[in-house]
Amino acid sequence: MTGAPLRRAAEPDDDPARRPDRRTSRRALLTAGGTAALATGLAGCEPSRRARTDEAEVTSVPGRRPEGGTTVDVVADFGARGDGRTDDSAAFAEAYRHAAGRVWDGVGRTVVDVPAGTYLVREPNALIDAAEDGGPKANGLRFRGAGKRMAQILFAPERAEDSYLCRNENRWANVVFEHLGFRSGTPGASFFYSYSTGQAQDYRFTECEWLGEWTYGLALDGSNTNSEMRWDACRVGGAWRRAFLYSGLSRKSTDRPQQDQFLNYWFNDMKVEYEWGNFLEFPYGGSITCRGGSYIITGRRPEESPHYGPTSTFFRFPREEHLDSVQRFHAEDIRFEIRDEHTVVIDCAWDSGTVHFNDCDDTSNSFKPFAPSSRPHRYRLTPRGPLVRYDCCQLSGRHDYGDGAGSGSPALVRYDMCLLANNPQEEFVAAGADRVRFVDCVGR
């Protein structure tokens, strides 16, 4: 996708009487329009009216159409420089206020264009600043860039701790980011804090990229929703002190058993190639699907983590107290690279649910000396599961199922038509072999 055009054609429903005088800056008009919409277009909405037609009775939309541009440009309209040196925090904050001011009848109506350039942002929450008590709930907010590596936001707050580029506290649904890059200029800063008790949901990222050292990518908090999120053809690079997607931060939602509504996350055709850290961490369960792409951890943690030790893990699912709404994970058509013994594909302690790998391959480094004794897939089974299945996979090292299920437990794990690259079938399972079945597999 190319950047925003230099001149925007008039929209069909623009009121000619409201068209700006070209001698007045668009930035001033947009700011004034956003403020007026917030003050009158929302608070002064007229009651819902009925309009009768020959066909049927319909409900008209209350209030007045908000003023200001439907598509705005952070450079042309709000004065961003995009030179990588000038602090563009104010321009992005103004663009967000303009979008928030154009919410009408619960619907957002603004696309924010980010032309090619590198935009230095030093102020936390500059991209989205949706405090829980900061305005009405809304559906629809879209940021559109010029392309990965072409439009990049460099987030460099004064301090890293609890500094997020975006925050959405139970206010926005249907948030879209397209063709944008995000880089942490302050090691340990975070990208997005999302808190929900029913509103924050339906996020979509298309051809976006993350670089630099972060604590969290998306940190999810709350007791309901924070769901229906999708990543398409994105690249996750950089490094992650905690995880790119972390569900159950528990910063505002202190009732941990209620944190069980983390549902439906889709990752399609991803390039996950980062230095160290975790990709997904779901201690409170969730429904997660990853399809296609290449997943590589290129290095090692610079020092052992108090949470994770020396390991870096693509899919980490520890067990915290929650109400067991759903525990489901599916990985399909993915090529993993395991470059050393500290790289883990999955570490799962869920006490029920399902885990399924289909047509995946982690054998690219199975010829290296560390590979036969490595344990890149780790589980702690209970009598209720999770149920684990591998179909048509090529697998290196050995798999570990712990000893949590107890003697006499039924078989909870099945390998069907898999190739075991380093060990014969009878030595492939490091622990918990009595719970595992092999069907038409080929061992070393």
TrEMBL record:
<protein>
    <recommendedName>
        <fullName>Rhamnogalacturonase A/B/Epimerase-like pectate lyase domain-containing protein</fullName>
    </recommendedName>
</protein>
<dbReference type="Pfam" id="PF12708">
    <property type="entry name" value="Pect-lyase_RHGA_epim"/>
</dbReference>
<feature type="domain" description="Rhamnogalacturonase A/B/Epimerase-like pectate lyase">
    <location>
        <begin position="75"/>
        <end position="161"/>
    </location>
</feature>
<feature type="region of interest" description="Disordered">
    <location>
        <begin position="45"/>
        <end position="70"/>
    </location>
</feature>
<dbReference type="InterPro" id="IPR011050">
    <property type="entry name" value="Pectin_lyase_fold/virulence"/>
</dbReference>
<dbReference type="InterPro" id="IPR006311">
    <property type="entry name" value="TAT_signal"/>
</dbReference>
<feature type="compositionally biased region" description="Basic and acidic residues">
    <location>
        <begin position="8"/>
        <end position="23"/>
    </location>
</feature>
<dbReference type="InterPro" id="IPR012334">
    <property type="entry name" value="Pectin_lyas_fold"/>
</dbReference>
<dbReference type="InterPro" id="IPR024535">
    <property type="entry name" value="RHGA/B-epi-like_pectate_lyase"/>
</dbReference>
<feature type="region of interest" description="Disordered">
    <location>
        <begin position="1"/>
        <end position="33"/>
    </location>
</feature>
